[in-house]
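4.2 Preliminary Data

To establish feasibility before requesting continued support, the project team ran the inverse folding procedure on a target of 465 residues. The structure was first converted into the token representation described in Section 3, and no sequence information of any kind was made available to the design step. The complete token record follows.
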């Protein structure tokens, strides 16, 4: 049988280990793994590693961010950047605009995304209202339509839910078999610390970090887990930044609870001191939870290596720096309170983990694949179509050159932001080709021209075990 495409000579990170073999692709699917395969197109991948295409299950694209504030990426830019970083699927969050329902929000996001993407896309929902129509009708209908995960916030005025509301939302997740993702930071504690800091004149970007200290996250993590235990649901704690929050997750698992955990590049490479850079430059690093300390990098690495973390995502949430619709929002130089939260990172997530993890000997290739693709697919209902190189799956593959060394540079990236927090960060190991359902979407850093990404409907979460 002649395939549409054959990739030859790579070390292939398959679902059952790493082997040297050819990959035969037909009609956008992986049709064969073997030797001496033939294809109309032959991709010579000698010296390269074939990984499952990255799945970034935590990104924000075109998300409403308040009056006058605009995210730096639309779906074209965000998914172009993702593809250039070795990704084939992203899962952005769908946040309703003020006064709009979740169903309307989904329709609006679909209208913005469909036909404009260079990766496949599926949406998590953000639940910020708990009225009877949202919980009794819209949310169940959307879950049944394939939006099988949603996020609740314990911080941010207008988004944060009370404990009772979280329990009510979790109850819908239990009835409908959906995954609850929690942003765990205690809003009242942050507000108390913010007021205190502002009274003391501590208003620079650095104080974004000092007013969201570790106990703020640790307490909320403990509470979210307890609420999930009471409601009787599994949950995912997203963007875990420190060892104490991680220990809450480990203790919960020891008690027999099903808790999944995600961390991000910023928590192994940036610190709160980055928020203290010259003048207003620290605003480039303002995100929540904030970057911590070098000691916390060690804690997070311990969690990555020992299996506490299931997911390594970017939390890509891009704003432009020199822009009053971005980090330089009205009032942002007066107080950190007005600086939009979030950093760009969808294109740099995989190279950072590959370089810091695989190349430095902390992670096997298989564990890298699990943390960056397979577990995302399983937990969010995309497996076995996505997340692994195996016969029958979509031909979503990133070819990596493990020896290519060059620093991260804003000039080389494809997001809409005007900076990267990792300017000059040395990387060994870059994706050199990204293939989505058999179609090349990035070659040697150059994105494909055709918006071949599709919307994905998802099934129920598969609880990793
Ligand atoms: N939480 C996120 O998940 N992303 C960006 C900002 C935030 O607070
Ligand atoms: Zn969050
Ligand atoms: Zn996020």
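Position-by-position output of the design step:
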């Amino acid at each position: 049988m002649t395939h549409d495409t054959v990739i030859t000579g790579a070390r292939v990170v398959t679902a059952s280990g790493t082997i040297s073999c050819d990959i035969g692709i037909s009609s956008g699917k992986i049709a064969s793994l073997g030797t001496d395969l033939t294809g109309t197109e032959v991709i010579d991948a000698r010296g390269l590693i074939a990984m499952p295409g990255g799945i970034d299950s935590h990104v924000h694209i075109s998300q409403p961010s308040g009056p006058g504030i605009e995210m730096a990426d639309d779906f074209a830019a965000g998914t172009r950047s993702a593809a250039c970083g070795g990704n084939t699927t992203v899962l952005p969050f769908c946040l309703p605009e003020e006064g709009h329902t979740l169903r309307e929000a989904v329709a609006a996001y679909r209208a913005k995304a469909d036909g404009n993407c260079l990766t496949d896309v599926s949406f998590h929902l953000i639940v910020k209202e708990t009225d009877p129509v949202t919980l009794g009708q819209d949310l169940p209908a959307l879950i049944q339509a394939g939006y099988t995960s949603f996020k609740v916030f314990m911080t941010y005025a207008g988004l944060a839910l009370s404990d009772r509301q979280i329990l009510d939302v979790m109850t819908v997740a239990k009835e409908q078999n959906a995954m609850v993702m929690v942003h765990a930071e205690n809003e009242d504690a942050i507000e108390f610390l913010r007021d205190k800091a502002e009274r003391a004149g501590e208003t620079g970007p650095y104080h974004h970090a000092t007013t969201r200290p570790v106990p703020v996250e640790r307490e909320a993590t403990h509470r979210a887990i307890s609420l999930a235990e009471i409601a009787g649901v599994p949950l995912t704690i997203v963007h875990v930044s420190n060892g104490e929050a991680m220990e809450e997750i480990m203790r919960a698992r020891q008690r027999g609870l099903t808790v999944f955990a995600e961390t991000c590049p910023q928590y192994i490479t940036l610190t709160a001191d980055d928020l203290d850079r010259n003048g207003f430059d620290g605003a480039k690093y303002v995100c929540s939870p904030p970057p911590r300390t070098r000691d916390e990098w060690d804690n997070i690495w311990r969690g990555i290596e020992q299996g506490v973390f299931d997911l390594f995502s970017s939390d890509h949430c891009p704003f432009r720096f020199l822009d009053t619709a971005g980090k330089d929002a009205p009032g942002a130089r007066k107080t950190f309170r007005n600086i939009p939260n979030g950093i760009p990172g969808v294109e740099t997530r995989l190279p950072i983990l590959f370089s810091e993890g695989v190349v430095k000997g902390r992670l096997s290739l298989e564990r890298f694949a699990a943390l960056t693709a397979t577990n995302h697919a399983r937990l969010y209902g995309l497996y076995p179509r996505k997340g692994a190189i195996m016969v029958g799956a979509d031909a979503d593959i990133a070819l990596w050159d493990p020896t290519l060394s060059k620093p991260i540079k804003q000039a080389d990236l494809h997001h809409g932001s005007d900076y990267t927090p990792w300017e000059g960060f040395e990387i060994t190991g870059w994706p050199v080709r990204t293939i989505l359902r058999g179609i090349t979407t990035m070659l040697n850093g150059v994105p494909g021209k055709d918006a071949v990404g599709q919307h994905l409907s998802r099934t129920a979460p598969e609880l990793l075990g």
